[in-house]
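Morning!

This is the sequence you dropped in the shared folder:
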Amino acid sequence: MRNLLMTVCYDGSNYYGFQTQPGGNTIQDCLEAAIQNLTGETVKIHGSGRTDAGVHARAQPFHFLTSSQIPVERWCLALNGRLPADIRVTSAKEVELDFHARRSAKRKTYRYTINANRFTDVFQRSYQLHHPGKLNVDAMREGLNCLLGTHDYTSFASRHSTKASHVRTIDETRIEVDMSLAVPGTRDQGVIHLYISGNGFLQHMVRIIVGTLLEVGQGKRPPEQMKQILEAKDRKAAGPTAESKGLMLWSVEYEQH
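The structure's back. Tokens below.
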């Protein structure tokens, strides 16, 4: 038996997230079907975590056990020929049998993208939240920095979260602004990329953080209120949940893999 670790990237627009759901149509379903088509095996893959419906991934690891002897360097091309065009396996390697894509993960990074120009980008509209109104990006940065450290993030978790503990650690945040498509002399503010890295994330956590930061950017909340929201440990204290399409799982890091 072999344990294979692979990385998949996908456009999540047409899927109900990564993990298998009763209604089907998930990234996991497509990957398991492709593996069965290739090897004849019925396998269960284990992802580095879940993504919500409509969320994308630049690099999401997953692993599975297989008795197939297909050389590891042939797996990517073989699976991609059996997958929809919006899902691609980009790497494959053999790892120790006790390696687990989720439990072995040490750090995850998500990116959320906001198009703050006047007009929607036709080519990126499926990957950006369009917000043409004025945003104070410096205030958003200040508010985001309030979330650094180890905290109980109940205020930024879905009310449907089933996790026993909502304590997580966010160790890095940053906001980058790409002005390349902003039209000079207009109200265009560019494309805002918000990055959050930590040891784990709760259901809807990044999207609720973004929805709250948008209120900070609009002047509806002062940036220092983010601390008070954290301390409240109450979902009602935070802002709305931002749309899923702007969110992308950016990277997952392991100690040795």
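Headline: The longest strand covers residues 167-178.

More detail when I'm at my desk.
O.
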